[in-house]
Write a structure and sequence with these properties.
Layout (H helix, E strand, L loop, with lengths): L10 E3 L4 E2 L2 H7 L5 E7 L8 E8 L5 H9 L7 H9 L4 E9 L4 H15 L6
Helix pairs in contact: 1-2
Length: about 120
């Protein structure tokens, strides 16, 4: 892979992170496709750690995806959903609002780059 050209993306995340609850999802989650993060803040902690990075493909909705996770009815495979449900009280989300991606493949590459950089517990 060292012989492959590297890509650079200009991205912009949400201005802040939002609590993963009904009001947060309904009022702040993007209605379109893209990349989101579930961030866990331990009680009293100032910094959070990324628990999961997800990608919603073109035609999907990050808000709908997060709503399914929030309600425990989908959005993640069963094992990951169980972990998220157990930690719900300390979870927040953010999302990539914009990126200079030209294709769905670019969005996938960007997702993998974010996962590689942040090493979330629930991503392989």
């Amino acid at each position: 892979m060292s012989e492959l050209p590297s890509k650079e993306f200009k991205i912009r995340f949400t201005e802040r992170i939002y609590r993963l609850h009904q009001g947060g999802v309904m009022n702040h989650a993007p209605r379109g496709s893209g990349i989101y993060e579930l961030v866990e803040f331990a009680p009293g902690a100032e910094d959070g750690s990324v628990l999961y990075v997800g990608q919603v493909p073109h035609g999907g909705s990050i808000a709908e995806h997060l709503q399914a996770i929030l309600e425990g009815r989908g959005g993640l495979d069963e094992a990951k959903l169980k972990v998220v449900q157990e930690r719900m009280a300390n979870l927040y989300f953010d999302a990539v609002l914009s990126a200079d991606c030209d294709s769905e493949e670019d969005w996938t590459d960007l997702t993998f780059a974010i996962v590689a950089a942040k090493q979330p517990e629930l991503n392989p």
